[in-house]
Amino acid sequence: MAVVHLKRWNLSLGTGQPLFVIAGLNVLESLELALTVGKHLKETAGALGLPYVFKASFDKANRSSIKSYRGPGLKAGLAMLAEVKRALNVPIATDIHEVDQAEPVAAVADIVQIPAFLCRQTDLVVAAARATAAAGGWLHVKKAQFLAPWDCKNIITKAREAAPALDIVLCERGSSFGYNNLVVDMLGIGEMQKLGVPVTIDATHAVQLPGADPRTGGASTGGRREGVSVIAKAAVAAGADGVFLEFHTDPDKALCDAPSCLPLDGAATLLATLKRLNEAARS
Question: Is the pTM of this model over 0.70?
């Protein structure tokens, strides 16, 4: 078990700490929407006494179709995230896909995230580890859909060889189960915690149906929105240290992964339930 500290924000994640909330938009659509979602989630988490970090992607590089919306891109996206950080006074989490994105992203984001499909890309992990450590942030690594939980030890070793003092958090987001489906092994959360790092649950992406959105004939990823709260609650009960969730003011109109996105007005109820489960699990 372990605890990591985000000193600049006086936030902690891990053993014995309050449930940590990383939540926001799947992808940046507009500054106005980001501020609306971030403000609501900050106030909701704050009322519950839960530490909060705003999350949104500036680029969704792993899309089913070349025509899919990807986001505003690095320069415009980081400018939007920096404004959200300034205006709302919240830490920022976002993901990177390329080595040359590491330093500019770490300069804005307090939590730099490695997407699941890229967690074994040595150059990316090394660059992200070094840039994140130098900036005093955390590296949040999503476990690949094809990796066993204990195999994440190689990711941790690789990152710490590049940056020995780096704070690392692992994220469970489901494993491939046959075609177009994912499942979450709740026992895997404890297995990853045995590696000496905190573990979060990405309940949003765990309910994806890759390449199986009936609305586009398989040209985009489907999802089971009703399953997000189920996965989140089960994972917190199993001991997850934090939750990763994506919301939208109008989920069906979200420009990316709409079937897996939660309605913003349901955040308070879900987070209150997750807080109670976390407290029960810790006791």
Answer: yes
Q: Looking up tokens 């804005």, which residue turns up?
A: 108
CATH number at residue 231: 3.20.20.70
- Scan for tokens 């807080």, then name that residue: 275
The catalytic position among 42, 167, 257, 278 is 257
- pLDDT tens, position by position, for the chain (283 residues)? 699 999 999 999 999 999 999 999 999 999 999 999 999 999 999 999 999 999 999 998 776 667 777 889 999 999 999 999 999 999 999 999 999 999 999 999 999 999 999 999 999 999 999 999 999 999 999 999 999 999 999 999 999 999 999 999 999 999 988 888 889 999 999 999 999 999 999 999 888 776 545 555 544 456 688 999 999 999 999 999 999 999 999 999 999 888 889 999 999 999 999 999 999 998 8
Domain limits for position 232: 3-282
What is the number of helices (H) and of strands (E) in the chain?
8, 15
User: Which structure tokens are listed for 158?
Assistant: 């690789």
Please name which of 83, 97, 75 lies closest in space to residue 38, comparing C-alpha atoms: 83
Instruction: Check 42, 60, 142, 143 and give the catalytic one.
Output: 60
Which of 26, 202, 233, 241 is an active site residue? 26
Cα four-point dihedral sign 163, 191, 6, 22: positive
> Is position 257 annotated as part of the catalytic site?
yes
Is 39 catalytic? The answer is no
Q: Which residue has the tokens 């990823």?
A: 221
| Structural domains of the chain, count | 1
67 is catalytic: no
